[in-house]
Amino acid sequence: MSAQPFPVQALAGLRVLALGQALSALIGGPLAGAQVELAGLERLTALGFADADLIIIDADAWDPAALDLIVKALAACPAPPPTLLVGARLPTSVVRNLLRLERADILDAPYSDENFAATVAALVCEKTPAVAPAGAAVARCWAITGAVGGSGATTLAIEIATALCTRQSPAKGKSVCLIDLNFADGAAAAYLGSKPAMKLADFSQSVERLDVAMLQAFVTPVTPQLDLLAAARDPAAFEAVSREAVLRVLEVSCESYDWVILDMPRHRRSWSVEALGGCDEVLVVSELTVPALIAARCLSDEIDRALGSDRKPRIVLNRLAGRMFGPAPSMAEAEKALQRKAEAGVSSDWEAAAASVNLGGPIATHRPKSKIVRDVHALVERLAAEPARRSAAAQKAA
């Protein structure tokens, strides 16, 4: 028999809106004494939020797009009730947006009655945020992806992560995490002269074991403020690593660091859209060749369609060089091919990039005066100074 960690009378009269018919199993258990209304998504259209003291959402009942609608409806309310998301499949983008609410928590399935009751107690009885202390910042996450192979996306991801470290207080310790999601042929560890330690395939069938403590077993320290999450190159890795394991690592990483930088694979995977959807910024890196620019335009349009119009990807033109060295297009000509403005350009400095790769480490470490370091630093300062590009609904709630 399940024991209750707080008195049943604490739930007496509690008005609970349970979205998902499977949650009916809780009525006679940890929700005993509460006034529970089981409903579907259509209930949200009539919900004034004043008639619920707690909202419980079954994440397994709907697909991620439907869950996003639920979270946006909550975020659009000035003072939404405490909200609990439960389930075995917890999409990263949904979780990150949900945790921006003042009082919200998540609970992985399967869970015991005791765990459920304790979580409800934290949300309803204690009247305090269940995930982070008041005023705590939500981790900011940027994704970098190349429009074509060899565009320099990994190099820029490393330099962006390094530049972000300089904005953090040294006394704070680890604050930036670079995650190489190119499991088959990722190069971030090799560029940094580091040993990859992430073994996601081992947890693909038991993602609930992945927590903040377990994440540290996967981490490769790079500098006092920068950690790397990268796996050994494996041509079969994309088939061996489950979507749930990838999204769980991203979720836990965002709980552990101030900044998370994703080095994304060019080709879409089962988790790509959800990973990009959880990011504040998506940077598409392109060379200044016509095929690369066309590819950048197509990839940006594809991401646009997948994510919606409120978080458009930004295009970064890499390896800008003086026209005296060849027929490279100008920024204006490149933007004409892109049919949109480029966010920034990064100068070409082959000697600095090659020296950094051969020595192992960021260009900023071995060639701090390189034009690449200067241009990346300017890009990072500009983007980091902007408010996180949340969804429109989340901005209303902020």
Describe the structure.
By secondary structure, the protein is α/β, with parallel strands linked by helices. The chain has two domains: 118 residues, Response regulator (Rossmann fold), CATH 3.40.50.2300; 258 residues, P-loop containing nucleotide triphosphate hydrolases (Rossmann fold). It is built from 15 helices and 13 strands. Strands 8-9-7-10-6-11-12-13 form an eight-stranded mixed sheet, sandwiched between helices. A five-stranded parallel sheet has the order 2-1-3-4-5, with helices on one face. Helix 1 packs parallel to helix 2, helix 4 crosses helix 14 and helix 10 crosses helix 11. The longest helix has 18 residues. The chain is elongated. It starts with 14 loop residues before the first strand and ends with a helix. The relative contact order is 0.12. The N terminus and C terminus are likely disordered.
State mean pLDDT (0 to 100 scale).
Answer: 83
Tell the overall outline: elongated
Note the gap between the termini: 42 Å
Strand order of the largest sheet: 8-9-7-10-6-11-12-13
Which CATH architecture of the largest domain?
Answer: 3-Layer(aba) Sandwich
Low-confidence parts lasting 5 or more residues at pLDDT below 50? Answer: 1-9, 126-137, 391-398
Q: How is the CATH topology of the largest domain named?
A: Rossmann fold
Number of domains: 2
> Helical stretch count?
15
Number of strands: 13
Query: β content, as a range?
Result: 15-25%
Task: List SSEs in N-to-C order.
Answer: EEEHEHEHEHEHHEEHHEHEHEHEHHHH
* Fourth-level CATH superfamily of the largest domain: P-loop containing nucleotide triphosphate hydrolases
Main sheet attributes: strand count, strand direction, barrel closure: 8 strands, mixed
Structural class: alpha/beta
The level-1 CATH class of the largest domain: Alpha Beta
Radius of gyration: 23 Å
